[in-house]
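> forwarded from #structure-qc
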């Protein structure tokens, strides 16, 4: 018979004892900071550690059971156009991400992996209201340029490790780019995806977090203010 392991969880509902069968813990990894969480991300993951502008950030769900989404993200009927529903796939060959895939990217960034980048494609005022930790704000308008040379100078070279070889864009060492914006009613990130594909960026190196800030906020996941 498996032993039971008891531990105290401290949350908004107060202190309570929870008994967990040791058999259930096989193959699951908990960090010491996760034992006190009542609201986990998955049964085996309570938080992810990443880096935002050189500072360590622990990403987890809000632990207040009464916490509600911020008012802006409660609106259901934004005018369309421009706020129209986006498809489940941004473009052929571009993988659609959910929260768990984004969290894996944050974990990679926290470990110093520079082969991937998370891009907040919203215009600059939006990150000041909150953004995903670890993301870099590159507004979609910076992708909306007249030539590949402009795109190379503004985005591809400084952010995505794209090179120019013999006058042609070289994507051999290009980063995997994960883009998001405000949610399924926002086209800023898909506009950026389209611009990158038009420039020749490999579709398999582009990922799209469709839910964006709408879903991130809805789950009570950690946000940071742009520029902090």
């Amino acid at each position: 018979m498996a032993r039971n392991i008891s531990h105290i969880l401290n949350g908004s509902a107060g202190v309570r004892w929870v008994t967990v069968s040791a058999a259930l813990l096989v193959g699951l990894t908990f960090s010491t900071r996760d034992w006190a969480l009542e609201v986990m991300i998955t049964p085996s993951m309570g938080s992810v550690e990443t880096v935002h502008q050189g500072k360590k950030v622990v990403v987890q769900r809000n632990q207040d059971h009464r916490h509600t989404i911020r008012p802006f993200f409660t609106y259901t009927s934004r005018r369309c156009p421009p706020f129209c529903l986006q498809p489940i796939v941004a473009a052929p060959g571009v993988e659609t991400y959910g929260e768990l895939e984004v969290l894996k990217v944050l974990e990679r960034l926290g470990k110093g992996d520079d082969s991937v980048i998370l891009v907040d494609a919203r215009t600059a005022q939006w990150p000041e209201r909150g953004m995903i930790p670890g993301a870099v704000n590159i507004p979609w308008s910076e992708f909306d340029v007249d030539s590949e040379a402009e795109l190379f100078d503004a985005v591809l070279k400084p952010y995505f490790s794209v090179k120019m070889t013999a006058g042609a864009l070289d994507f051999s060492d290009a980063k995997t780019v994960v883009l998001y914006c405000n949610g399924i009613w926002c086209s800023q990130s898909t506009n950026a995806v389209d611009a990158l594909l038009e420039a020749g960026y490999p579709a398999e190196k582009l990922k799209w977090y469709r839910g964006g800030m709408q879903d991130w906020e809805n789950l009570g996941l950690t946000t940071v203010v742009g520029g902090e």
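QC bot note: The longest helix spans residues 148-160. Confidence is low (pLDDT under 50) at residues 1-29.
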